Structures are given as C-alpha cells and as structure tokens.
Amino acid sequence: MNKTFKLISAILICHMAGILGAFFTTPQIDGWYSTLVKPSFNPPSWIFGPVWLTLYTLMGISLFLIWQNNGNKKAVNWFYLQLLLNASWSIIFFGAHELFLAFIIILAMVLSVIKTMLEFWKINKMSVYLLVPYLLWISFAGFLNYNILILN
Q1: All domains of the chain in start order, with CATH
Q2: Does residue 1 have a pLDDT over 80?
C-alpha cells in the first residue's frame, strides 16, 4: 500500500467515527439537546463541526505515522478502542439520551486515549503530539458532559 493511500485510509477511518456520531447527533441538536440545561461555558453548536473535522484529521495522521513504522498491533488496537468509544459516546449521549452512561464512556475514552498515547510514544513521538488537542478536547467534553448531567 503506498503512502498516500495509507494516509487517506487512516484519515477516513477516523472520519467514519465522526460520520457515525453525526448520524445520531445532528437530528438532536435542535430537538432534545436544545431542551437541556447547559452550563455557561457550553460552546455554541457551530464550533463542534470544525473542531471535530480537525481532530479526526489529526488522529488519522497520527495513526498513519504508526502504520508507517510497521504499526504495533497493541498500540493500534488501543487506538481502535478509543475510536470505538468515541463513536459510541455520540450514540449513547445523543441517540439514547443516557447522560450518565455517556459520562462513563467519555471517562473510558480519555483513559484509552492516554494509553494509546503511551503506546504511540514508544513508536513515533509526533503521533503523540498530534493527539494532544484531541485529549484536551475530550477532557473538556467530559467536563461538559458531567455538568450537563448534573444540571439535568
């Protein structure tokens, strides 16, 4: 597989999680989600699209860098686990309206991203740096999820 195809594939794999999440999220923004009490620091809805587009792209590049180093099955499996948790969060939060379970999932996601970063560090340090914005964003999202849970 050539480098360009690997890079595009890695980015698309990450964006597929976003597309799956959007399937459950988009219909709820003006409906159920708009009825929730949100904290004052809740970002405007329009910010989430560009942020996730950027984050999924960075995640894909990070995965590509690991693949380029002949991938470490353990490291890649941790990456896939956190990506699965990422997609499942949207299904649980927006699709099932389960705020508490979504909070548990996002905590597991944060921990699995940290573990992914630790595994990636052994292979390619740049791949870890590319995941830092993602870790920061989902940590903030976890804090936001917790506050929405408490307020509702």
Answers
A1: 3-36+45-151 (1.20.1260.100)
A2: no
Flag whether the pTM goes above 0.85: yes
Q: pLDDT (tens digit, 9 = 90+) per residue, 102-111?
A: 999 999 999 9
Residue 84, CA atoms < 13 Å, CB-side half-sphere: 8
Sign of CA dihedral 25, 49, 84, 110: negative
Residue 36 pLDDT level (bands cut at 50, 70, 90): very high
If you search the block for the tokens 């903030």, which residue do you land on?
140
Measured CA distances, 72 to 7, 27, 100, 123, 134 (Å): 17, 38, 34, 8, 21
> Which DSSP symbol is given to 46?
G
* Alpha carbons 102 and 133: distance in angstroms, whole number: 21
Q: How far apart are CA 62 and CA 130, in angstroms?
A: 6
Half-sphere exposure (CA, 13 Å, Cβ side) for 15? 13
Give yes or no for a contact between 112 and 147, defined as CB atoms under 8 angstroms apart: no
Tokens 């936001």 sit on residue: 144
